[in-house]
Amino acid sequence: MTMSPTVRSPPKAVVPSVLKAARLLDEVAASRDPLSLVEICARLELPKSSTHSLCNSLALAGLLKRQDDGTYHLGTHIVDLAHAYLSRTDMTREFGQTLSTLKVLDEEGAVLAVRDGTDVVYVACRNGRLPVGLAYRIGMRLPTSCTATGKALISTLGDDEVRQLFRGRQLPKLTARSCGSINALLKELHEVRVQGFALDSEETREGMCCVGVPIIDPGSGQAIAAVAVSMLKGGASKRKQEQIVAVLKELSQLLLHRMKLLR
Question: Less crowded by CB within 10 Å, the N or C end of the chain?
């Protein structure tokens, strides 16, 4: 006798409208461009009236922002919530404390980042005293393919995994120097694996370069985060780069050690 599959009923204490609102925020967050009400309805497969009510409610709460042309993007209150969450996360707290104990990199900007799909998300940062043309902020997203932190994070993936990650996508070009093809990216990642650090030479912003080092979980061999330092291209001598790589590798190991102690 063939057994019919078990059908699981949803938990009783669930508010469907809250789940729909969460799905709506996910769709808007996944889009690099603001979405119109019609586009949101199509993606969520919901009626226009209920979707409009959800958008109005989320906009009132500051979780969505309605643009002048009627499209929607994430609201600023998202950043407040992210900041509150990240400030209580062990790794971000340890990043600030460890960076202070090293007493280095005061002039350059230092960041801690994690990966979300093909994006790198900055979860902690300390902007340096020197202007580099790019002010990092918590929650900021940039493409993994043209950032030092991003390349460091995906360097522990295999070539096939990297190809799958970007399947059907074109690599974003933030500047003329941004990595433009999967083959070129794979070549760079091979170098990252060999040397233990990644470079962004004017790929994110002209006149700026960045050095990134992965924080690798020894159990899985995968990068769980990455640390990086940004500086002006003119000040990035070979000696300076070597000093920064050494400091970042020390920082990554200290963070990994501190995280083990917290478990």
Answer: N
